[in-house]
Design a protein that fits this description.
The complex is a heterodimer of chains A (about 750) and B (about 475).
Chain A (H helix, E strand, L loop, with lengths): L29 H14 L3 H7 L5 H13 L4 H38 L8 E2 H25 L1 H6 L2 H16 L11 H16 L3 H31 L4 E2 L7 H17 L7 H6 L14 H40 L10 H7 L5 E2 L27 E6 L16 E7 L2 H13 L6 E7 L6 H12 L5 E7 L1 H7 L2 H18 L3 E5 L7 H12 L9 H19 L8 H19 L9 H6 L1 H15 L2 H4 L2 H19 L3 H13 L5 H7 L4 H9 L1 H24 L4 H11 L13 H21 L1
Parallel strand pairs in A: 1-2, 4-5, 4-6, 6-7, 7-8
Helix pairs in contact in A: 1-2, 1-3, 1-4, 1-8, 2-3, 3-13, 4-7, 4-8, 4-9, 5-9, 5-12, 7-8, 9-12, 10-12, 19-20, 19-28, 19-30, 20-24, 20-28, 22-24, 22-25, 24-26, 24-28, 28-29
Chain B lengths: L7 E7 L5 H9 L18 E7 L2 E8 L6 H11 L7 H9 L9 H12 L2 E7 L6 H12 L4 E6 L8 H10 L6 E2 L7 H14 L4 H35 L1 E3 L8 H33 L14 E2 L2 E2 L6 H6 L3 H6 L4 H5 E4 L5 H11 L3 H15 L4 E4 L1 H19 L22 H11 L15 H25 L1
Parallel strand pairs in B: 1-3, 1-4, 4-5, 5-6
Antiparallel strand pairs in B: 2-3, 7-11, 8-9, 10-11
The chains are: A mainly alpha (about 750), B alpha/beta (about 475).
Chain lengths: ~750, ~475
């Protein structure tokens, strides 16, 4: 068998090897394996045989690879062994046993038919009719079926029966201790399914059935002949014929026709005279004194008829059917489009991956190019800001700052870089802080690093602050993981520069009071931003949670969409009063009127994208997030809510992000309402979703401006497990308390840092 | 470097993170090609993929490291100019001979070396980016390589794409043949247009590219056919599946109930596994699976796709909450038709099947009849579940049809609604399947009779038709 586990798959005969594909995975479903194995036994393990058969050039490489993949399976050897045994010696044994029985039947028939009654002569036509008549009729039926009823024959599920019985016989014949253990039964099943499919599936059933029938009759006839010959050689019979209403002439004629061919072939046949005189006339009992000659002639006719009209056609047909069966099996191709073949096929699909080996890239070295001749004695003071490949932010350029700064503009091209370095080099004072603004969508590659280094080189070792903006836009096109990765790439780049520096994420497009202060601190350089307001933040959360508890207490049944919306509005008011913030990036009131459907969608997306990975991968939490987004959007839009509510159904029709929002926001008809109210599970779920989304909104609002990562972490740690479901209103309070506890811990930790 | 001089050589170049390797993945339909990440300099080697049609290699695509510092490199190359008559290619050659080409500009050198020997250069840009001066520096570098350049705009399907600005900017630089090809949101027609645009620029390789296009169309058709077949098999298997409830001597209702529940959960488990297998086959049909389930990029919970088939969410997601409510709540309960004794639907169809029965199926049907007489019941898979199975599979197929091989996020399926999932023809075919328990391949290998095959074939065609309609609708 070709291929072992260690053999890598060769791609295209060249010495290039497919990288990363050496591993041939294990294929699980037994059905698939059986098909694959069927392919294998088809060629007895030799691949070339199969490939030569394939007429269409396209599947050729697939077939060859399929074979390799299949043979690389750990089960392939044992399966192929089982299949071989089923196909060869076990089937052989079964067929042999059956044939023995059938031939014995033939012999018994012979004995039975030659039992003369009371010494009367044996009636030739009676005997011939008995042993040949039935099978001739069946033969005719088979011919008719084979010619016209091919589909009916093909449909016969003989294969399953045969393979099943083979398995059964094989199991019974094997000593108990050697029988296949339970664990192998799957393999046995797969193997017999494969044998069944290849040998007896589809059009092959017709010829298999034919071959088996004819073989049976052949053996039957052989047994019959042997029986006859034995009986005829050790006993003496007189032969004759009789008729009541038939004309003797027609019988004589029939005898002549019957004996013509056997006579030609050298069998002794009675002459017409002998035949005529052999008529049994019972009344007169003038039986001719039969001589040995006559008896031999009649025996010859009997045996010759059975050979010629019984055995020979069956034998011939057996050979033809067996040949056709063999040919059909030879033509069998695994159906590579079959779904069960899919995993195997994808492994085998020709896919060229060649890796050109090249010398490994050198580690980057600092490119100490023409170090500008700057005065190292220059005094360093003030802050300098510069943007790198920066899109003009929503807050304008330069970003708002209370302190006076030197604005070097935005660097994009080679010329910009030269101008900026020149300007810095000739300045009277070197800056003590270099604040670089860049877009999060910019990859911190070597080009960017070089630009920053160039600029930094002409300062007198200024402190470097990198501010990454455009977080909102970046998040829209990728997810939190990518954001994380991008920020860490920036941090690594700054570290690699070997200067004292830090990286901060701050969205200039959505400045809040908090982030504005932060920006001021970064530019003006008053050390790390202080966080005294964090205590007020917990106060905001407390107020909001109290509000939630108060609202929820009024919900004996599932809250309606309006109730939930009112709660979210109240929460937004509470937090805003305390912290004075809003969630950036939510569609504003104007866009809500213009295109509510789109606004809802983007609000839902915005919030769900903020969720930590763990929550985002849960459908339920995504639903909570989506609900929250839509509600927050409505809540922040204030008085416009009714108008927007009117389009909710349209939005829902266009595809809500999840069923959760759908079921929450759907304007229920009376029947639904009743169903929801009647189902305590549903009530618990809706209540849970409403409370959770309100609490999450409170947390999100309160934490605004503290960086996406912190918000994500806080949410991730606060909202554990699946969204809660509240069977009773009493459960809401403790749950809110637990969340509050967790938040307090997180805020405490942050204050300590 | 390479002896395949007659094969079309394509160099894929661009700024770091523009999606060169993603383009390679999607064109080669190979998720595992190279490495893709949002960090700079993910690709440091030149890797090649030879695109094939009918087993013959037609085009050699080379993935190159990104041009990280075009500004610096252009500066460097300009400094190499000693003679006013130095043209682009000679400057590039001179650069490739410098030690820097193996040092700080190694990545760029590898890319430019490939661009020099290629028949055509595909310049990949992230269409969501702003057009910046460095991009024109990059194009300047490529122009100096003296090879036809075809800009390929990646991520044009993204909301924040700036395709128009890019087309405009590229036209200003004299590049009018521009193509959009999103590597993450796949569009078969865009791929065709890409090859067509390439064949305009390298006319001598037009036959190869035309063959490639034809092969791609054929392969796509085959993918859809294979996926539909997998779905059809699933539906026929599920529809014909019969889960026997253990016949018990005890007549007590609670024991009986427990037995029914046991059979129900066995059946659910079998169906879940069967669905997972089908989804694997669908992935493979679109050349996604690598045979390794971890590479399937499914939102996997022990091999199942996203939300469990029998969860309330699955039903809710499909927008049939009202239905489930009417049927008494949980989807699992509503999903199962209980053919309770006597002449219920199950028995009636069973009798029908025996009257018109075929030789092949009689044996198992008589077994059923015997069980029925003994008072044992059978569980069937309900219509809601069948619809859900189809809806989920269709949703998966549709999302895979528009999924580039560069997509790194997991697939999640959320069929919008079950309305109109079943055409009348499918419904009739599945009804037929119901009366043939031997057709079911749930948890075992099915009887591969030609009747079953014909049914599967017909359902396949229906599913294909459905996919066609739905795909047209989403375009």
């Amino acid at each position: 068998m070709p291929g072992t586990d260690e053999t890598p798959i060769a791609i295209d005969g060249s010495d290039e090897q497919r990288t990363g594909h050496q591993h041939v995975p294990r294929l699980k479903p037994a059905g698939l394996l059986s098909l694959a194995m069927a392919n294998l036994i088809q060629n007895g393990g030799s691949r070339s045989a199969l490939v030569e058969h394939v007429p269409d050039p396209d599947p050729r490489p697939i077939m060859a690879r399929l074979d390799e993949v299949a043979s690389a399976q750990p089960e392939s050897r044992s399966l192929a062994r089982i299949m071989r045994s089923i196909r060869h010696w076990e089937t052989g044994l079964l067929v042999f046993l059956t044939l023995m029985i059938i031939s014995a039947l033939g012999a018994i028939t012979a004995a039975g038919s030659l039992d003369p009654e009371g010494g009367r002569p044996v009636n030739l036509f009676w005997i011939l009719g008995g042993v040949l008549g039935g099978q001739t009729l069946l033969l005719l039926l088979w011919i008719v079926l084979a010619l016209f009823g091919g589909r009916l024959l093909n449909r016969l599920t003989l294969g399953g029966l045969l393979a099943g019985s083979t398995r059964f016989v094989a199991q019974q014949l094997t000593p108990r201790k050697d029988r296949a253990p339970e664990s192998r039964h799957r393999e046995l099943d797969a193997a017999s399914a494969a044998v069944t499919h290849v040998d007896f599936g589809g059009a092959r059933a017709r010829w298999a059935l034919g071959a088996l029938t004819h073989l049976s009759w052949t053996t039957f006839n052989i047994g019959l002949l042997i029986g006859l010959v034995v009986i005829l050689s050790i006993r003496q019979f007189d032969f004759g014929w009789e008729t009541t209403i038939g004309s003797p002439a027609s019988f004589e004629c029939a005898a002549e026709v019957l004996s013509w061919t056997p006579g030609r072939l050298g069998f002794d046949v009675p002459t017409p005279k002998e035949f005529t005189s052999a008529r049994i006339d019972a009344l007169q009992d003038t039986r001719p004194a039969a001589g040995d000659e006559t008896r031999r002639a009649f025996s010859g006719l009997l045996i010759g008829s059975i050979v010629l009209y019984g055995l020979l056609p069956r034998m011939l047909l057996f050979l033809i059917c067996a040949g056709l069966w063999r040919r059909a099996r030879g033509r069998w191709r695994p159906d590579i489009d079959a779904p069960s073949f899919a995993p195997l096929r994808s492994l085998a699909e020709p896919r060229a991956v060649a890796v050109e080996s090249m010398p490994p890239i050198d580690a980057e070295h600092a490119d100490d190019e023409d170090a500008d001749l700057i005065d190292p004695e220059r005094s360093a003071r003030g802050s300098t800001i510069v943007g790198i490949e920066l899109e003009p932010p929503a807050c304008g350029w330069p970003p708002p700052c209370d302190a006076t700064v030197t604005d070097l503009g935005v660097l994009a091209s080679r010329e910009d870089r030269a101008a900026i370095t020149r300007r810095l080099a000739i300045a009277e004072h070197a800056p003590s802080r270099l604040v670089v603004f860049a877009d999060l969508s910019t990859t911190p590659d070597r080009g960017v690093a070089r630009s920053i280094r160039r600029i930094h080189d002409v300062t007198n070792d200024a402190r470097l602050r990198v501010v990454l903006t455009g977080g909102e836009r970046f998040r829209n096109r990728s997810d939190a993981r990518v954001l994380e990765r991008r920020i860490s790439d920036w941090v690594n780049m700054v570290e690699d520069l070997g200067v004292e520096g830090s990286v901060t994420e701050l969205d200039l497009d959505h400045l809040t009071a908090e982030s504005r202060a932060r920006l001021n601190e970064l530019i003006a350089g008053k050390g790390r931003p202080e966080l005294p307001r964090d205590r007020g933040l917990l106060g905001a959360i407390d107020t909001a949670f109290a509000e939630i508890a108060a609202h929820a207490r009024k919900w004996p049944d599932a809250p309606a969409a309006q109730d939930i919306l009112a709660l979210h509005k109240a929460v937004a008011r509470c937090v805003e009063a305390e912290a004075g913030v809003e969630i950036p990036g939510l569609p504003d009131a104007r866009s809500l009127i213009e295109d509510p459907v789109r606004s809802f969608q983007s609000a839902a997306d915005r919030i769900t994208s903020t969720l930590p990975d763990r929550l985002r991968s849960s459908a339920k939490w995504t639903a909570v997030g989506g609900t929250l987004g839509v509600l927050a959007c409505l809540a922040s839009a204030g008085t416009l809510a009714p108008a927007a509510l009117a389009v909710l159904p349209t939005w829902l029709a266009s595809g809500a992000i999840s069923g959760g929002v759908l079921s929450l926001m759907k304007p229920r008809d009376a029947e639904d309402e009743r169903a929801a109210h009647g189902d305590p599970e549903e009530v618990a779920r809706i209540r849970g979703e409403a409370v959770t989304s309100a609490a999450m909104m409170a947390v999100m609002l309160a934490l605004q401006g503290r960086g996406e990562r912190f918000i994500q972490e806080a949410i991730d740690r606060t909202f554990q497990g699946e969204p809660p479901e509240f069977d009773s209103v009493e459960q809401i309070g403790p749950c809110l308390g637990a969340w509050r506890q967790e938040m307090a811990g997180i805020i405490e930790e942050r204050a300590l840092q | 470097m390479n002896s395949h001089n007659d094969m079309l050589q394509v160099a894929v170049v661009g700024h770091t993170n523009a999606g060169k390797t993603s383009l390679m993945r999607t064109l080669a339909r190979d998720q595992s090609f190279g490495a893709v990440s949002p960090s700079p300099a993910t690709t440091t080697e030149v890797a090649s993929v030879k695109l094939q049609a009918g087993g013959e290699e037609l085009a050699d695509f080379r993935d190159t490291p990104g041009l990280e510092d075009p500004i610096g490199l252009l500066e460097f190359i300009d400094d190499l100019r000693t003679d006013r008559r130095d043209d682009g290619p000679s400057l590039i050659e001179r650069f490739l001979g410098t030690p820097e080409a193996g040092g700080i500009f190694a990545g760029e050198a590898k890319a430019l070396r490939q661009a020099r020997i290629a028949d055509i250069v595909l310049y990949v840009v992230d269409a969501r980016d702003r057009v910046l001066p460095r991009h024109s520096d990059e194009l300047e570098l490529l122009a100096r390589c003296g090879r036809p350049v075809l800009p390929v705009m990646n991520f044009i399907a993204d909301e924040s794409t700036r395709g128009e600005a890019w087309r405009d900017a590229l036209a200003r630089l004299g590049l009018h043949a521009t193509t959009g090809f999103d590597t993450v949101v796949f569009d078969a027609e865009d791929e065709q247009r890409l090859f067509e645009a390439m064949s305009v620029l390298v006319n001598e390789h037009r036959p190869a590219l035309t063959r490639l296009i034809k092969d791609r169309i054929r392969r796509r058709g085959r993918s859809i056919e294979r996926a539909s077949r997998a779905v059809a098999e699933l539906l026929v298997d599920a529809a014909s599946h019969v889960e026997p409830v253990e016949a018990s001597s005890s007549e007590s209702d609670s024991t009986r109930g427990a037995e029914v529940l046991r059979a129900e959960s066995t059946m659910q488990q079998l169906l879940r596994e069967h669905e997972a297998m089908t989804h694997q086959a669908i992935f493979a049909a679109f050349e996604f699976a690598d045979g390794d389930p971890s590479k399937l990029m499914l939102e996997c919970t022990d091999g199942r796709l996203g939300i469990d088939l029998f969860s309330r969410e699955a039903v809710r997601q499909a927008g049939i909450s009202a239905m489930a409510g009417a049927a008494g709540g949980a989807a699992s309960g509503a999903a199962i038709d209980l053919a309770v004794g006597g002449m219920s639907l199950g028995a009636a169809s069973l009798l029908g099947a025996i009257v018109g029965g075929t030789l092949g199926t009689t044996a198992s049907q008589s077994r059923r009849l015997v069980r029925k007489v003994r008072g044992a019941n059978d569980l069937h898979v309900g219509d809601v579940v069948l619809q859900l199975l189809l809806a989920r599979s269709l949703d998966l197929i549709l999302s895979l049809m528009r999924r580039g091989h560069a997509h790194v996020e997991s697939v999640s399926i959320a069929p919008r609604t079950l309305d109109g999932v079943f055409t009348r023809e499918i419904l009739q075919l599945l009804k037929r399947a119901r009366s043939h328990p031997s057709w079911s391949g749930v948890g075992r290998s099915p009887n591969q009779g030609s009747d079953r095959q014909r049914s599967v074939d017909r359902v396949t065609r229906c599913v294909e038709k459905r996919i066609e309609t739905l795909a047209r609708g989403t375009d």
